[in-house]
């Protein structure tokens, strides 16, 4: 009978999320990951089987956090336009950690070779797009948003803005450029 784990797996997933977000998947070695988590490499493998399994768990945890934050930010009686602007800025990492989006980063690094990453990313993108569609439709019904694109098309455009701007933020794009992009995307609604 093996010894019980001396760490909390859920906490390790959360810490691993931060490590992968800072470094990327390829630049994170199993030993470096174990060191950052404060556990032995054997414990990492005994609990998660592989670096890849821990990575996909971290991505799933990230997507759950992002989806919850998205719903919380878009719910409420306040005007839709400023809430959409706040969501786009938050989801790109603008003015915050400057790391971009973990899922966008992972897809850029691994999507062609990693079906699990692609599936996790597409599931998050679907949720984002649907939340945007609902918010845009609501804004149109109240007369706050007057664009002519169908809400689903406008939501797809905002999703593309988040993905592209997230990459720009990660690459060190200036605050001024990011503000212009976000402003233009929201004003088109």
TrEMBL record:
SUPFAM superfamilies: Homeodomain-like, Tetracyclin repressor-like, C-terminal domain. Residues 29-48 bind DNA. Gene3D superfamilies: Homeodomain-like, Tetracycline Repressor, domain 2. PROSITE patterns: HTH_TETR_2. The keyword S-adenosyl-L-methionine does not apply. Keywords: DNA-binding, Transcription, Transcription regulation. InterPro entries: Homeodomain-like_sf, HTH_TetR, Tet_transcr_reg_TetR-rel_C_sf, TetR_C. One of its GO terms (molecular function) is DNA binding. It comes from the Bacteria. This is TetR/AcrR family transcriptional regulator. It comes from Micromonospora musae.
